[in-house]
Amino acid sequence: MTTILVVDDEPQIREAVARSLQARGYDVVGAPDGSEAVDLAATRSPDLVIMDLNMPVMDGLEATRRIRAWSSVPIIVLSVRDEERDKIEALDLGADDYLTKPFGTGELLARVRALLRRGEHPGDRGARYQVGDVDIDVVAHRVTRADEDVHLTKTEWALLEAFTAQPGKLLTHRWLLQQVWGETYGGDVEVLRVFVSQLRRKIEPDVRRPQAIVTEPAIGYRWRLRPMASGSDRP
Description:
The chain is α/β, with parallel strands linked by helices. The chain has two domains: 3-120, 3-Layer(aba) Sandwich (Rossmann fold); 128-223, Arc Repressor Mutant, subunit A (Orthogonal Bundle). The protein contains eight helices and twelve strands. Helix 2 (34-44) runs parallel beside helix 3 (60-68) and helix 3 runs parallel beside helix 4. The mean pLDDT is 88.
């Protein structure tokens, strides 16, 4: 049975989330603070963690940092609307997604399912993707549009590889900048926007309606394509 660790200092929220998950067949473990969450993550090895940010004893940021030091378990962080900075910091620390309180049960369950699916099919730098008439083969370092080769610069390839290694995950501006350009570029969002725009022009069938790289306003981007089944032939 899939085990989910729910961490929130408000018993009503913790219990409501637990009931919704249990009704869908998940095993749920609860914790009232980050310190207990870290202990339970180590002893129970959950398949996913739902982590509130604002908690006593140890907040969700520190708990996320400690869990990420030794575990790749998917983490969804919960925050209220005025915690934008903490939300971004949690994502930079390694959280996989976030929800803003108050949130709907349906949205939470959808995020849980998406992250659990990604855990079953982890990101693969060698995966192939297809969107419209564009075929992306990361391991072969080849992109084609209507069977014609598309040239990507070294930086565009680095950006593409950063996206495809983390399918479905919300990637912050800071994380992408540091992955592609290094630590000193952590705050230069305009550089990232320019290169994302260039990459979209080369791999998106319609840049006005991106299907591969979608924008999460003020926070970052997501790679929305799912890998093609291994062994699929190039059309």
